[in-house]
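Model it.
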Amino acid sequence: MAVLTRDEADYIFGLPKRPSVDTIQWQVGDGGFLNLTVPIKCDDGTVLELRGWYNPRTGKYGLSLLHAGVYPIRRWDKKRGHRDPLTKQTIEGPHKHYHHEDYGDACAYPTDDVEPQDVNRGLRDFLNECNVDMGSTVIQPLLVQGV
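Modeled.
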């Protein structure tokens, strides 16, 4: 498989997209985590995969939009102390990763456009930012304490 360039990843990121399923639903995974795997189709036919994880004990979660199951077109998390290899800056709060052919998904930038405390709203924010039109697809919300 050829390495995806940053320009190609940015092109894919900008394409209109739609889920290829009628319902988006979290599934119970290992260690009590909840996981999400959703096929996403771009208007040009490119197939992507939305993946998510949620830890109900801590309320922490992360979301990724992947090309070929490997290359992160965008990835969001709120782990502290991430160091960006290009800028050499340490990011202390929520941030998004993007694909770079030399650094994989290590490159990131701070962001505040995804709700960090509410996984249901955060998922919708992330899909919106990734140019995913939900159409008639339904998201089954997580019933979590405080949400």
